[in-house]
Every structure is written in C-alpha cells, then in structure tokens.
Amino acid sequence: MAGDQPRRHDVVELRVHGVSGADPTVILDQRQVRQVAGDGSGGFHRVARSDGVGPDGVTLEAYRWGDLPSGTVGRTLAMVFLLPFMLSNVAVWMRPTGRRRAAAVSVLCRLLALNLTVLYVVSIAGVALDLLAWRCLGAARCRPPFDGMAGLDGRHVGQRLAVLALLPIAAIAVLRLLGTRRSGPADNPLWAVEPLVHRLRAIHVAAALAVLDVVLLTARRASGATFSTTLLLALSTAVVLLCVGLLAAPGLIDRAATARTATWTARTAVGVAAVLSVATLVTVASDGRDWSSATGLPGYGGLAGLALFGQMMLLVLLSAVVLWRRGRVGGRSALPGGLGAAVLAALAVGLTGALSAGLVYQAGDLLGGYRGDGGPPLPYRWTLLAFFLHVVAAVLLCGALTVVSRRGRRRAAAAITTRDFPVVPPEAVGRLRLATRTVARARFTEWLGLLAATYAALAVVGLTTSLVGRTGRDPEELSRHLLGLPAGAVQMGLSGGSYLLAALLLTLLIGGVFAYRTAWFRRHVGILWDLGTFWPRAAHPFAPPSYADRAVPELADRISQLAERHVGVLLCGHSHGSALLALAVLRLPPRVRQRVALLTYGSPLDRLYARLFPAYLNEEVLREVGERVEWRWLNLWRDTDPVGGWIFAAHRPGDPPTDPVDPAGQVDRRLRDPPELLAAPGERSAPPLRGHHPGETDPEFRAAVRELAERLRGAG
Q1: How far apart are alpha carbons 238 and 671 in whole angstroms?
Q2: How many angstroms separate the CA atoms of 494 and 465, rounded?
Q3: How far is residue 263's CA from residue 199's CA, in Å, rounded to a whole number?
Q4: Using CA atoms, how far apart are residues 52 and 60, in angstroms rounded to an integer?
Q5: In which order are the strands placed within the sheet that holds 43-47?
Q6: What are phi and psi of 705, to 5 degrees?
Q7: Helical segments of 483-573, H only
Q8: pLDDT score of 612
Q9: How high is the pLDDT of residue 269?
Q10: Which of 371, 216, 369 minimizes the C-alpha distance to 291?
C-alpha cells in the first residue's frame, strides 16, 4: 500500500491497547483508519490519509488484538463452562522461583487439572448412569417422560447402563473438540498448537475414558465378580495410574529428551483406554446376571467422594508448598513464592466441585429421581455445603480486610496528595478529597498478597468437609449431634449453595454473551477472560487456546518489518499491551533491537505480573528487556491507577534519588493525577482524574514520545 512504503527518515509509533480492548479509531485518535496488515481478529491499522504522520512527526500505527480471545456467542458460552480449566491452566504459570518448589507446583497443578477432568466425567456419569439408567428407569420412576426414555425402561440394567454411558463419552468428545478448536486461519503457522498440548490431551482423554470404565465395572462387580470384570477393572485402573504417573514425574512430558517417549506412551494409553471402553460396554450390556438392589448405582458414591477428596488433598498440598518458606521477588514482597497458583487453584477446585454438585442436584430436581431415597449421593451434598461455607468465609474475609486496611490506605493517600498539592485553595478542597479517595482505593492492590494468603488457607474448609464426608455421615445428622444445630440449618446451607451456584452460572452466561459485544461488559468482564487466555496451555489441554501464541510472534514480525523500512520503531503499550510488547522485544533479533524503543503506561509488569508470575516476568526478565532496547525505555504511571505502577523505581516527591549509574532507575516517570486541582485559565472544568486511562494525547505522553523518537533518530 502507498502509505506503507519505506520512509527511512521517520519513526513509527506502534500502539498496543490493553485488555479492555479499543477500536483503532480510538487508539489512534483519528476518525478514519485503514488496515495495513493482519486479519479481522487481529490487525495493524494506520491513519487513512496517505502520509499517516501524526503529532511529533512520527508515523502512527496501532495493533488491535482485542478480538483474538473472543468468538461467536455459542463459542463464548462454551468457553464459560471451561472456566475452571482456564484457571487451573493459569495457575501453573504462577509457579515460584527455585527449581524444586517450581517443579512441585507444576506437578500438583497438572494433577489438579487432571482431577478436574475426572470430576467432570464422574458428575456427568452421575446423571447418566446413577440418576437416569439406575434410578429413573429402575425403581424410582422419575417424572414423565424420563421414566421411559426411548423404551429403555424395559431393558436389562446392563443394557441401560451401556446405552446411557454414551452420554459421558460424548461429553469427553465435546471437551476434546473444544480443546482443539482453531482460533485463526488454517494456514497460519502462528497458531500451531504446541506438542505439549497434544500429550496432555491424550493423557486427559485416556484418564476420562478409564474412569468411566471403573464406574461401570465397580457397579457390575458389586453383584459378583467375574474374570472379565476383574481383568477389565484392573486394566482400567492401570491406565488411570499411568496417566497420573506421566504427570507426576517432574519434567517427563516437558523435556525434549523424554518428549518422544511421553508422546508414544500417552497415545498408547488413549488407544488402550478406547479398547477397554468398548470391551467394558460389551461386557456390561451382555452380562445377564441379576444386579444389586441398592438405591443408587453401586460404588458410585464412593468413587465420587474419592475424586472430591483427592481434589482437596492436592489443593492443600499445593497451598502448603507455596505458603511454606515463601521467598521474595526482586527484593519486594507481594504475592511472593507463587502464592497466586494456590489462589487460582482454589478457585478452580471450588468452582468445579460446585458445578459438579449443582449438576447432580439440579438434574435430580428436574427428573425427580431422588424422591424418598435420601437425596443425591453424600459427597455432592458435602461439596455443595463446602461451597456455601467457602463463599460466606470469602465474603467476610474481603469485607474485613477492606475495613482493616482503610485507615492505612487513606493515611498513605493523604501523604501523597499533600506532597503533590501543598497549598490548596478553599474551592479545591473537594477535588483534593476526591483525589485522596481515588489513591486510597488504588492502593488496595498492595493488600492483595495478604488477601490471597488468607484465601489460600481457606482450602482447609474444603478439606474438612471432604474428610467428614468420607465417614458416610449425613450433614444434617452430624451437625445435629455434634453442633446442636436445628434440623433445617444444614438444609438452609445446601439451598443457599444451590442458589449461589445458580446465580454464579447465570452471571457467567450473561457475561459470556455480552463480554465482547457491550462496552461495559467488555471493560469489566472481558478483562478477566483476556488475562486468563493469555498464557499457553501447560496444565489443562481443554482450556481455551492462548491468543499470545499468535499476538506475540505477530508483533515481533511486524516490528522487524517496520525496523527495516523506518529509522526506528517506538513501541507504546498500555496496560496488558506492555506485557505483549515486552515479550515481543525478547524475540527480536539484535539488528532489529537497535532500532526499537519502548514506552509503557499503566503497566502492570511489576506491580502485578512480576509478583503473580515470578518465574517468568520477574525483575531479571524486565532488566533483560531494558538491556535489549539499550534502555530506550520510559514508563509512565499514576498513583490513582489500581493496575499499573512503576517498574524499577517509584520516583515520588521526597523519595531518595536513584542510583545514577543504574539505567533502570531512569525508566519510571510518575505523572501527578490530577495535574491541577482547579481549571486552567480559559478552561471550564478542572482536569479529570485519569487513573488507568491510556491518555495518548496527554502532554506528558507526547513529551515522552518526542524524547524516545529523538533518541531513536540519534541512534539511527
């Protein structure tokens, strides 16, 4: 295109937006733009006029990646149900520094991810096998038309189980399909799925099929064991243990030296599991012996309880690893030692357990299959009660921490605004109070470490209920005997958990529909999805695919092209866009880095990312980014910003001077917010509080652009 031809004397200002997304016209502050590279999901845009030159003599260009994580309504809704898988996948990237602790966290996160898949299959088997095949088509007689589904009510129990076992098998196939969906053009090499995902996918599918076989064979053996059922059960259990072993051996599926062996083993496990599933269905359907007269599917409650108990044990072990002897990140303490891994794992476990229990509960109410027989299996009752207690404890914890931290946050905020505005006219007192409150709210981010540590400790609630549930005691009976609670107290908790789960599910569905179609939802809900799908799949293969697999290489390629055509490329990244650019800089060849400068603003690189992901975005990595661009790097930050902050040095008024020898000390520049409390002469209103707003047209931003552009021209 004419406007994209080589112009050796100018500098390109490449802007990358944050997670809230933005239209190219907003990013470039121009009404008419045109796309010069990329596609409809992620592309590079310039001003429509022929020269494309913006203020300060630089050529403006914007990279819009906001549509990469999104999709159709149906796909987005499907992704909502994969939320626990996404959380477990992000958790593995939060592992701490230190080889042993990082390896232990990686193993535990992957085992937890496998357990999520197992529980997914077990809960669907509870509906298909325990509720439909055993109860509704047996003695319980559910509501019409479920009491005679497709003529199965007249069939033998084994035949009913074999036919309805196809439902969980179909659910496994749906999971695999969602996990392999392509998010870009078929011929785009940037979207190639890493080989690790193939190995993980094979392991999860093999374990899911084998667990389903164990459920069927355990029920069949309750009426008497035969050679075939014993052999099939032993082989299915061996497949499950093999899958666990592949994930439990540190580095086995990661290292290049063992990758081929791990791949072959995982594929063999899938093949064996598929053959065993066919053999199990045939054996169960053709076995004409009488079955047990138990109320529920024999052995199902024990297997569900074992899966839920194993989940809680893994979570407690993970929390113990990250809480024990927590370290420091770059000399600063906040969410240190991979604490975020325990928090996200706790969220994934709690959500999965609640969704599983809710599925069984709601299906039972809809079908009427639990009438008069004591309700759903006990493990799910204890899980739903644990979910209710966990939510109540978390709400009380957040409220208490907000109240406890308020005085300290307000005191620190008042000190900051007092230094910024030592003399305040009477008419500006209200504005000063507003600025102080905004800074105090933004500083709540500094308390997230304590909140996360306490929340991770709440895993004890789930472990306790799981341990008590293993005794086989009913929640109402136990609470009445031990705690003296009235009979309806526990039932109130179970009903509350059910209502909370329904409200959460409804919120997720609404958010999934509107997150990428409504500005408000995009700003407040879509941000969580964008952050969650940023990291590649290294723990759960059925998590949504990572858009960073495309965005980062695509950015690096575009920067290299621009560096060949122009004297320099100024990379401007707001919020999460600064992380995309930092990773892209690490991929650039040396000849390109000589023509690159970096401007970050509202950046969470240190305040959040270096502390949430200490093994990947720590101070050492950030210094490497600075060295690769020869410290042509400026970072703008505000005290009113709850997300972004300084990267190397705060530079507040009154702070000690930075080391003049250390170039990192010259990167950060604090912006006073608001610049003034009162309106300037000739203006109608006072300058607004910017907070996390990008502000590419602000004078301080344009001054930083001019400075870095001159440094690029000088280097060129």
Answers
A1: 61
A2: 13
A3: 6
A4: 6
A5: 33-38, 43-47, 58-64, 11-16, 568-574, 596-601, 633-637, 668-670
A6: -60, -45
A7: 487-514, 519-524, 526-532, 548-565
A8: 86
A9: 95
A10: 216
pLDDT given for residue 577 in this prediction = 93
* pTM across the whole model: 0.87
Phi-psi region of 56 (alpha: psi -120 to 50; beta: other; left: phi over 0): left
pLDDT at 216: 95
Tokens 């990428």 identify what position?
Answer: 516
Q: Quick one: which of 602, 565, 603 has its CA closest to 44?
A: 565
Which token pair is 256? 């290049």
CA 108-543-38 angle, 5° bins: 130
Which residue's entry shows tokens 């009380």?
396
Query: Residues 6 or more apart from 412 whose CB is under 8 A from it?
Result: 439, 440, 443
Structure confidence at residue 713 (pLDDT): 87
List Cα–Cα distances, 480 to 373, 379, 465, 469, 498, in angstroms.
Answer: 20, 18, 15, 15, 21
What six digits make up the tokens of 673? Answer: 């917010």
Distance of alpha carbon 290 from alpha carbon 25, whole angstroms: 71
Residue 371: predicted pLDDT: 62
**334/453 Cα distance (integer angstroms):** 10
The CA dihedral of 441, 443, 446, 451, to the nearest 10 degrees, is -20
CB-neighbour burial class of residue 430 (10 A; exposed 0-12, middle 13-18, buried 19+): exposed
Q: What is the mean pLDDT of each run of 10 residues along the chain (716 residues)?
A: 52 88 82 86 82 73 83 61 88 87 91 95 92 78 64 78 93 82 45 74 96 95 90 97 94 84 93 96 89 84 89 86 59 56 86 85 77 72 82 85 91 93 91 94 85 73 71 71 68 77 77 64 66 88 86 93 92 94 94 95 91 88 95 95 90 79 91 90 86 88 93 81
Token output for 536: 């590649």
Q: What share of the chain is helix, strand, coil (3-state, %, to 5)?
A: 60, 5, 30
Q: List the structure tokens of 438.
A: 């905004």
Q: Which amino acid is at 669?
A: R
* Residue 328, pLDDT score: 42
3-state secondary structure of 289: coil
Classify 673 as helix, strand or coil. coil
Which helix (H) or strand (E) is 60 found in, with range?
strand 58-64
